[in-house]
Amino acid sequence: MGFWSKHRRTILITTGVLGCGYALYRFYSWKKQITLDLDNDLFPSDQDSDKIIRDALQSHFKNIQGISETITLPHAMGNLRLRINKDFDLSPLLEKVQGQQLNKPLQMNEKLIIWDKIKILSFTKITTSVWAMVVTFLYVRVQVNILGRQLYMETAQGFLDSEEQDESGAFNRHAQKVFLETSDFLTKFGFTSLISKMEVATEHVLKNMKLTEYFNPAHLSQTIMEILGLFINNGKTDSWVNCVLPPNAAYYQNTPGMLSNRLNDPNTPGMLDQLLSEARNVLLSIDFRNIVQSTTRIVVDGLMDDLSMELNNTINFSDRHPLVKLLSRVAKLSDAVIEEVGVNKYIKRICSIPDVELFFTLLYTDIPQQTMSSLSESDKASTSSTSVS
Fold first, then answer.
1. Per 3-state DSSP, what percentage of the chain is helix, strand, and coil (rounded to 5)?
2. Is residue 21 assigned to a domain?
């Protein structure tokens, strides 16, 4: 009791100091943990940042592909189907050669002339259908990937203030809408030129082929691919590209029927020119040309497989048969090629080609030099602003 009375004040002071010290230590640890957690949220590590960016990129890529497959592509394919059925109606020629429109039968030379027209149109129809379907599908994917990449890079820059973003977004949206509408350029403005160029290639390949010449699946496939190859590689490099997209924004302003009212904003034509230039560069690339050729080959091979199965039920298609007996079936092949997207097995087959997926993955992640320069300048501006402050 004497010890406690004698040292009571010292013990209480010491205990208080130790208690306060422990309390301060716990408070400091708590504050430090909160700060670390906040830093991790605001300034994640490089590894966490890479994962966030990678996940965001993957999610955005899937969203862009969803837009392509559910909106843009079905609309473009619907217009393509209408044009093919309108411009390649062979029924009047078939009825005429069969004598259904005449009171007197045709002379042999007249029949041969009509059959020759049917021959050219049948092969022009199937080659046009295959090429237009493939390129329409690939071009829609190209433009949507370009827009998705641009949107992602603009978001990543993050150097515009809110007012500038609002103004920029306004004219960007106009340019993007017009750019997406170029998916219909082929069927609205380039289709006549496409048919003309394809018909020239068809006439060149078939000029020495007689109606009595015997065909088998391999010969038929070879003929179709020869026509497509001649069309793609004939003339100037960009001859077929001009069928797919307009040369520049001025074309929209000067061509009746275009939605040029969206180009009234002075910034929009420049933005549209940039998008069209990017798309044209992609379509003119060797990689895109190779994808078109390999994809058309896969589609044609599938068509021949289906035709063989169909004809084996009626005739032995493994044998050779006169071309004249196959023309109507050749023309009818296009029906399956231009079916609606949801039931089009050839589009599904294209989607499953690894090289196609790789091509668009690389396209989406490729950053044009112009964008890199823009990012570099924004980084310099941000650094300069930070130094001044």
1. 80, 0, 20
2. no
